[in-house]
Amino acid sequence: GSRGASSQRRGSRRTGGRGTETSRTMKSMTFSPSRAPTQARAGGTDPAKKLWVPKRRGQANPKLHASPASAAEGAQKLILPEGLYCETIYKTQRRPTSTVWVGNVPIGSEHPIARQTMTTTDTKNVDATVEQVMKCADAGADLVRVTVQGGREAEACMHIREKLFKYGYDTPLVADIHFNPKIALRVCDAFEKIRVNPGNFADGIKKFDDLTYESREQYDAEVEQMEEIFTPLVEKCKKLGRALRIGTNHGSLSARILSYYGDTPDGMVESAFEFARVCRKHDYHNFLFSMKASNPLVMVKAYRLLAAEMYKLDWNYPLHLGVTEAGEGEDGRMKSSIGIGTLLMDGLGDTIRVSLTEDPELEMEPCSRLALLGTEATDMGIGVSPFVESHRDFTSFEKRKGALPEPVDEASPYDVSKALHRDGSVFSVVSLKDLENPDILYRDLGCKFVLGLPFKDIATSDSVIMPELPDASDAQAMLALKRLQEGEVCVFSPLSELRRNPIKGGVALVTSEEFASSAGDAASLLPEGITDFALQVTGEEAEETLALVKAAATKPVCLILKTNEGSSRVHVSRRFFETITNLGLDSPVIHYLVLNGSHKDDIIITGGAECGALLVDGLGDGVVIEGSEFGTEFLRLTSFGMLQGCRMRSTKTDYVSCPSCGRTLFDLQEVTNAIQEKTGHLPGVTIAIMGCIVNGPGEMADADFGYVGTVPGKIDLYVEKDVVRKGVKMDEAVDELIDLIKEYGRWVDPEPAEESVAA
């Protein structure tokens, strides 16, 4: 049952035959195609003719339905209400699945979360690919994917597999197939798993044509054509004991699916289900699903929708999780943590890949951290007592919006309305020691300097929390604090500190115990000169205490949600938001995270998973991260990165950057760095950097501008999904991209940096 260590270290030779299919046998089921388009499509159709409209995915479902049979013996069956997508919303409990065998590696809920990566070498270079696979296996990869574009690559795969066995590596290999069903059949002889993209396996190169079907027969003809092309691979995989991943990409849905859904999560699910029905028709079940997108919100919604549909249909196939084209560095890790971590907290996910624009073995550390996070959450069964959730809608992108404080004196830098930002707020924790070097503090908080004095910039912390205030007699510290406030950065401090030193414009942090002791009259607690307060809560307050906030004459500026150590942030917070929504309490909520660790990835991955899981559902209006091991600047940038990754607040250029593979036509890391260096100051602009044409055009739909490799040495430039400049020479392409951004009115020149003056 458990995965052997042989797939993770050098010198372990495969000794047994390939694992056999152990998933439960499922009855074949007939489905109708998916729902109708939301609007009529153009295309020369006779308006007098009634268009054929496909039915919604699946069949009519009862209000209650049982969960799928668990692969784990004795697992309790839950009765799930209509539309639920995971085992429970109040506890992390792994979704029961069948077991899919990939060589000697089992994937499913009975087994550890399998970790994956993908080679970046030219697959035809057998020795280089073998060496990279071994590096990845040594770094902890349980499976390694290799791109297979054509016949020469397929031939090389036979030698790659043989050499790896010769060197003692039995790490299963996955063939990444796009456009070429015949190559999939060939490489099936060599590799243990085949990944097919439903958007282009049978439909060819990505198109954006609007299609209109005038009859069911016309639609069915295309589906039947897909089935005819896909069936030989299904039959061969079944015969050889190979595994399949039906891997939908948001950026490469077929024209048929796009005509009904557009680039939507619903379309992603239906795209995968078309292929799954073929597998099931042939009684082949050694497959799993993925629903990848570069936008973490789309990715999360698609996987949840997929899981919900599988619950309704009594399917229990495993899930491969990943955010595609996440990018590099901290931003790439944050996007992946938000997407993958959110789903792991829901108990979804059986194998994961963190796609970074970096060498593939470097993906394994964040991948392993996320796998451990998910494993610990399910092993410990973190959560809260059961509660009913009626407001959070996993099928919607709607967000809860907290009511920001109204300005009293908008011209004053001390006005409390400046404490929060409408798109999401970032707070920073500042110590007395930080005030000893004010210039460094101002820079770490992201201030710009005007005439040598600090002011808010686009990515400046909106407010600071000072656990301790300086003595009123400390002139230097008080001046440093005053200049910060005059730069429109608000100061929050505990009630006890403001009673000792009631600084002008200070906002008192009042605990829920203090608030309850005043019977909801927080104004009576405030010292003279202090008019505003924020309520600090743990999320475990009695409903009666929170009802006092709703009834209070003086409302808090915001609620600071700082969960108790050892509690489950995701589940405590979900219950808290359910309570305050039921009460009609619309105060903004700022998540306060206390995160520790020896590595930056500890902060990014834990924060992205635990807080991102709430923000993607619209639960929260901002974040503050406290971490004693890391500086103010890193924690601030991590907070802004989290907000941008959750599509709340854009403070810099967003990049959709593919992780590179054997199809890549240029050095992605080098080109990405060059583009970022020249364009990183454009908040609200999204630039896609794609190494090849496979997902390029589709992901252009999620970007404002695109840079896509087409042939060696040549680049196509896109505006959204349309190519506007073709065959640009590589050495001119970055400058041409900038010209294109200027042409469409999205360019601004970077502001020159100004020096500060000593406080």
Overview of this structure, please?
There is one protein chain. With 759 residues, the chain is an alpha/beta fold. It has 21 helices and 27 strands. The strands form 6 sheets. It has an 8-stranded parallel β-sheet. Strands 13-16-17-18-19-20-21-22 form an 8-stranded parallel β-barrel. A 5-stranded mixed β-sheet has the order 23-24-25-26-27. α1 packs across α2, α7 packs parallel to α8 (329-345) and α8 (329-345) packs across α16 (600-610). The radius of gyration is 27 Å and the shape is globular.
User: Sheet bearing the most strands, described?
Assistant: 8 strands, parallel
Shape: globular
Helix content: 25-40%
Q: What percentage of amino acids are in beta strands?
A: 15-25%
**Average of the residue pLDDT scores:** 85
What Rg do the Cα atoms give? 27 Å
**Strand count:** 27
Report low-confidence residues grouped into runs of 5 or more.
Answer: 1-79
From the N-terminal CA to the C-terminal CA, the straight-line distance is 65 Å
Secondary-structure-derived class: alpha/beta
Strand order of the largest sheet: 10-9-8-7-6-5-12-11
**What is the count of helical runs?**
21
